[in-house]
Amino acid sequence: MHSMTRRQFQQQLLGLGAIGFGLAANGYAQTQSTGDKWPIRAIRIISPDAAGSGNDIFARLISPLLSEALGGAAIVIENKPGAGGRIGVEAAFRSAPDGHTLLLGNAGSNGINAAIYKDLPYDLEKDFVPLSLLAVGPNVLVVNAKNNDVNDLASLIRVLKSRPGEINFGITTPGSSAHLMTELFRLQSGTQFVSISYKGAPEAARALIGGEVQANFTNLSNIMSQIQAKEVKAIAVTTATQTPLLPGVKSMAEQGMPEFDASAWTAIFAPKGTPKAITDRLQAALVSLRNNAALRERFLSQGTQMIMSDGETLGKRVSADVQRWKALVAAAKITANQ
Question: Residue 2 pLDDT > 70, yes or no?
């Protein structure tokens, strides 16, 4: 091995420094170009809910406006319902983090599931980048409009106790916030009824109107049009107090069940590892829709309040929900199979 002079050593150090600077500059340029050249194909938004559900409607309401905010990027909605939202969420989790796949998550798929499923292949708090909390709204307890015996919570409990095990409750989606509300109601009311699960909110609504089930909890956004058409009757909401979205309908808490303070929400996430240049553009585009009055009115007509938050706000909401539901599910001993 030849010895190295001081001058040769200094020249090699300078060479390494130049290489390091070049690599850093190249990395910066790649990051910039990633954001500038994206998207290079259609952006897919995976919805873990059935087509026609409230969350699906929200995605279709914002997609043309988001496309415009992103300079005309093509956006397609892909419904992957089932398993309490796990199928859709896992599909997003396993997608390439290149900004061409997003997830339309909700309070069930991206919050409650962490509490009731022990074998999720992903971490809801760590494996998705929170982009924007789109909307928040209540769950609502509804019965068939032709049911003259039930007009409030007390009368429903009275009927259930007079006919234990004979009344059917619909479950819009196993693992959803509405599912959890159903099980909490069963425990707190001391009633017995049969739970029937459906593939999504539209199917559960049809079952209620058709008389296959006599009651069910669901997101207000899923059932607003049927309430307005007087096909079903709302007897309680799950927020702490009455909601201006449904005037005159008292909350579960106001009718004697204080534990029922739970809102449903819808949000947009990106798979972990999506370049920051891309998530920054997406977040800015979503937040820019916040002041769209026409869009806000459309959301209100669907029974929900438009938020369009930043990613930090959404991340805090997810973490708080996961911890809250884990504590509640453990205390009530609720499982996904109930």
Answer: no
State yes or no: cis peptide before 247, omega within 30 of 0: no
Which segments within the chain are labelled E, that is strand? Answer: 43-47, 75-79, 101-106, 128-144, 168-171, 194-197, 215-219, 232-237, 263-271, 305-306
Cα–Cα distances in Å, from 279 out to 131, 285, 318?
7, 10, 18
Q: What is the DSSP string of 133-202?
A: EEEEEEEEEEEETT-TT-SSHHHHHHHHHHSTTT-EEEESSTTSHHHHHHHHHHHHHT---EEEE-SSHH
* pLDDT at 166 > cutoff 60: yes
Domain range list for the chain: 43-137+263-332, 138-255
| Interatomic CA distance for residues 219 and 304, integer angstroms | 9
Name the pTM for this structure: 0.78
Domain 43-137+263-332 has CATH 3.40.50.300: no
What does pLDDT average to over the chain?
87
What is the token pair recorded at 113?
């599931």
> Strand pairing of 215-219 and 128-144?
antiparallel
Q: How far is CA 319 from CA 92, 176, 201, 224, 296, in A?
A: 19, 17, 26, 29, 26
Same fold, 43-137+263-332 and 138-255: yes
CATH superfamily of 138-255: Periplasmic binding protein-like II (3.40.190.10)
Hey, how many other C-beta atoms are within 10 angstroms of the C-beta on 247? 7
Q: What pLDDT sits at residue 258? A: 81
pLDDT tens readout for residues 286-296: 999 999 999 99
Q: How confident is the model at residue 190 (pLDDT cuts 50, 70, 90)?
A: very high
- And the tokens for 23? 């690599």
Q: Summarize pLDDT for 13-54 with one digit per residue, the tens.
A: 344 344 444 433 444 334 444 557 899 999 999 999 888 888
Q: What are phi and psi of 204, to 5 degrees?
A: -65, -35
CA angle 128, 138, 337 (to 5 degrees): 65
Distance (Å, rounded) from C-alpha 140 to C-alpha 241? 12
